[in-house]
Amino acid sequence: MTSIVNATTNPAVLDWPQTDEGFAVPYDVFTSPDVYAREQERIFRGENWSFVALEAEIPNSGDYKTTFIGDTPVVVTRDDEGGINVIQNRCAHRGALVCRELRGNAAHLECVYHQWAYDLKGKLLGVPFRRGVKGKGGMPKSFDLGAHGLDVLRTESLAGLVFATFSDEAPPLADYLGPTTVAAVTRIFNRPVAVLGDQRQFMHGNWKLYAENTRDPYHASLLHLFHNTFGLYRASQQGASVMDGDGRHSLLYTRASTTDEAVDREIYKDSRSLNSEFRLQDPSLLAGRADFDDDITLVILSIFPNVIVQQIANTLAVRQIVTHGEDGFELVWTHFGYADDDEEMRAIRIKQSNLIGPAGLISMEDGEAVEIVQKAVVRDRERASYIAMGGGRAEDAEHLVTEGAIIGFWEAYRQQMAAA
Amino acid sequence: MDSQALYHQISVLLSRYVHTIDDDELEAWPDLFTEQCVYRVISRENHARGMPVAAMYCDSRAMLIDRVVSLRHANIYEQQSYRHVVSALLVDDNEDGSYSARSNYVVYRTRTNGVTEVYNTGVYEDRIVTDNEGWRFAEKHVIFDTGRIDTLMVIPI
Amino acid sequence: MSSLVRLCAVDEVSEGEPRRVVVDGYPPLAVYQVGDDYFVTADTCTHGMASLCEGYQDGEEIECPYHGGAFNIKSGEPLAFPCTEPLETVPVELADDALWVASRAGA
Asked: Are A129 and C66 an interchain contact pair (Cβ–Cβ within 8 Å)?
């Protein structure tokens, strides 16, 4: 076990231990408020694109949705030219939240405090008592509406996913994502989607613990035991772990089960995971229809920094990370299907939704996993983790028994957090 | 059926329901439902928008059994217990052999550190039937206000 | 036959200083001078409840003091956010150094 002898002198600039074997992440990254503050600046306001909405959530002119990039409130609007705008949700007057609802439809945005009114692109339209009343008061003669609009972010969409960035330097979205990520997104978002509902799950842990979790293909059969208990996914399934760019984005996928019982018994012989004695009393839970021409049945695509796109059997969803301090985050699940799903397909997706989300039969344990790390590392900021499964380097793998993508995430993260 | 007697029966059913869960007698929980039943735990947010995604959705007693088996033998979660409080029950005779019931509920959850918190609150909208095997839920719709689910949800509401 | 009701004297209105007048049968009215002519509209902004006479006149435009919306005085047409509903206009006559509109008293 590797440890750092000296505590970091500047907690906001991390001291990563050198190791001969595996990769070490200092636990400081999960518990330090200074690190969190620095992430808000360097990652969430850095040269990264953050996911904010599906276009299908705001289909009509005037539709809006409020969300967050890191912990900065933003509003996503559909204007009357059909364009999408991502705007900071902060009045140019004295800083109030302009839009206080989760979603809705409005011809313009108006701050309740002093009724400053903005159009759906963030342009200031009017302020009350601008010329005063009966010659008294009013704004200075020099007051120019055009100089007091809302702060608008750079926005780009890919296949119906809306991203935004605070940075003028971030590369175009497709370049930021990289070819593997773009292909994985467009494979799923190959035609218009229809939102089926949201779920919100709060985890008492650092958001990066979830980033690790979704880049970790081999924990599924060891932590999410629903698979094993009822004889489903196994580590002997074929799959791969692929990273994009500098390793910040990760694609994990598996192909349709080639269930090999003998192989699985060998792999799991001593672990608690082997138990396919139970069969579902009602197997209709897993009844489905192929959504794609290929044989890929599971995709976990983690797009740095804040969203995961998933296909698990017939469940399709995006999971957005909203940070709440160094020890908490909300995961917003938006489930969707295709706009052309028939009733039967929709019913399949609704029933299979039992598998995912905060009560998800195969996903709920991620909440527990995040929290048990946060609880255990609380006072060990000078210690570090040990990440070596699959070789201990940020490398792609044509199998699932690896932690390479986790290392890819950390190397990209470390670079972004380094002193400018 | 006399309205007071009806109210009493449904009140008893609801009390049995929550005690079954709170006392960790989950194997008995599916028996409170009819064989072809609906058990749906859905956020008010989704329900109000007409969105169909639910946290839990079962349309047979067998699916309820699967949830219990998964909870007992598969899922991994912090040991926790619930305490339900149910109130404001209103009951109606649907005149078709079934009865409607609407009540408020609060689930307090206690984790291993001994801390009890308000975990989930909302309304039960139930369709209830009775036969020689007793009073049971044909449908139970749990519409919860607590949109932000804390950590995970494994024990049924 | 319509009789007329007197709103005010001509020298009680000047360009840039419209005058609010209340007469039976009408909502509160605003009387304006625009160049050499006079016009009358409803005084209450169609957006909020503000009095347009307390606003700002610029030629044939009147700006509401409340949110800065504006109307064309002659046509009542809304000109600026947030006003979208047109303003009622009333034909006005100048006679005997005063301004008159059709009487609606008892209507």
From this structure: yes
